[in-house]
Amino acid sequence: MEINPGSFLAAPNLKSYSADNNEYWYIKIIPSAALTGNTITCRNPRIKTITSRDGRESKFLNGQLATGVPISEAEYIKKGKPAGYERGILKILNIREKDIPAGKWHEIFLLYRDGIEDNLPTFEATDAVEQFHALAMERTREDEKLPFELKGSNRNSNPSKDNQGIELRTGDIVFFEPDKNDYSKVGEVSVSSIWRHSAGGTSHDYFNAISPETLPFNPKRNSISIAEQMFGFVEQDFSEYKSLIKNRQARALAGRLRFSHAKEGKDNGSNCYIAPITLKILDSPKPPSPDMYFKHNSGAGGYISKQELSPKKHHPHGRKFYLHQKQDDKPWETLKPNDHCKQKVKITPVKDEAVFYFHIDYDNLSELELGLLLYSLNPSDTFRHKLGMGKPIGLGTVKIEPVGLFTVNRKDRYSKQTANLFNEKRYHNAWVKDGTNSWPPIYDREKTEYGDGSLLIKLDYEKIKKDFADKMDKDIQKALEILGDPAKVTIPAVHYPQLKGKDIENENFRWFVKNDDRNNTNKQFLEPIKLTGLK
């Protein structure tokens, strides 16, 4: 016989036991002798609970059954304290029945007999509660209804802080997991049985396991990356490094690149925008999501559960890239603009082929650094960057096309004996892409000083770029250029993972629930890029 959980939520007077509600409830138990030939298994034998079944019959995890819905203590006394009833407290999540994944318990009757407090163990849970609050705050900022609180309780003791997540207080009921290294402590707590585990460490822990040099600059670092040399950095003063820092100031390096705002070109006609549209929900797999973001530290791919995720065993895949959309229609536009409105945004997209101009000012770059800058802007003719909102659902594909490179020889400029320095040319060397003739007015000086190409010493743009590319790891270079090429995308549409046949606009979490199901024998995961042999 299979007993499926129904819903206590149909009874509006039932409330979960919490800091805001301390009521006892009573439920009638069917003697276990009445059970013949039936086996009921439980998900968690460490606790004795009753979950409802269609408001009539309930599953009692020690093998007994209950009938009816719980009654209040006042009603129990009014009935003369009839035999066959057990006292308990309710744990009910404030969630609609249709929103709960199958197999997850969200309505529980906990036995609470007289004197139970005398035998209850206590555990240190300060760190676990702080971790819960951090996760809850992150979730609430994404969706003000999440995570779900206990039915009948306030989300926290200060209503003005509702957007800051759930605050646990004395009297709230939570699921908990012991600390794996110290069973006198609680490792994690959760209001629901849909457990949101920590990632086994911080993002710093995972990247540090690969190499300490992958972390933001700190006192333990031994080198400065080429990106930090170009963009600058400020040393991070983590508390664990204070013994190394002592009384010195944090180290810092000023960046040598400055990016301007992009300005619309004359190429766009009268308007470069299309009509406003409402996007599908912008979401992404929340870290840790190991089936998306992690691989084994051997480099091999494979399904990794949240429970086993560890910096000692697993490495992050690396930088996240979004694939380009192949479809010519609008797969990013919602078909349900009136559903989940608070999770959707309306935007005014830029039309296809719209042109914008921007420039980058740089100071004192070495040949290697300048080569990296030129290569990163346009790694290949087929490479497209992702820019702006909506990248995971297909928006933001842009082509960056350098059209001019101008350099200033400051030593020559300021050593000249001249009556009026400001009448001298600013630039000494230049390169302009063939066929370039339509620049915005802000670049009139560059256009004038370049003239017909004979006024300045010509730079070899392609050689500077190629000299850098020739020094790159060839597998990494090939992987990067393939990821940026829309023609390499073979799937019909780019979107979040979905269950087959399900509505792409609803309940993105269900793919992850199904993938993590212990009975699922076909677990999926993101394969690491196989560098050798890329075509």
Describe this structure in words.
This protein is an alpha+beta fold and 535 residues long. The protein folds into three domains: 8-119, no CATH class; 203-255, no CATH class; 263-516, no CATH class. It has helices at 73-78, 126-142, 203-210, 226-231, 242-245, 290-293, 367-377, 410-415, 444-450, 461-469, 474-483, 509-516, and strands spanning 25-30, 49-53, 57-60, 65-72, 85-92, 107-111, 175-179, 182-190, 233-234, 252-253, 257-259, 263-264, 277-278, 294-296, 314-316, 346-347, 356-357, 360-362, 385-386, 397-398, 404-407, 429-432, 457-458. The protein has a six-stranded antiparallel barrel. It has a three-stranded mixed sheet with strand order 21-22-23, with no helix packed on it. Helix 9 (444-450) links the parallel strand 22 (429-432) and strand 23 (457-458). The longest helix has 17 residues, at 126-142. The protein is elongated. Mean pLDDT is 79; it is low at 1-7 and 33-63.
- What class do helices, strands and sheet pairing give? alpha+beta
Tell me how many strands there are.
23
Taken as a percent bin, the fraction of beta residues is 15-25%
Count of structural domains = 3
User: What does the overall shape look like?
Assistant: elongated
Question: How many distinct helices?
Answer: 12
Query: Helix proportion of residues, in percent?
Result: 10-25%
Averaged pLDDT, please? 79
Q: Strand count, sense and closure of the main sheet?
A: 6 strands, antiparallel, barrel
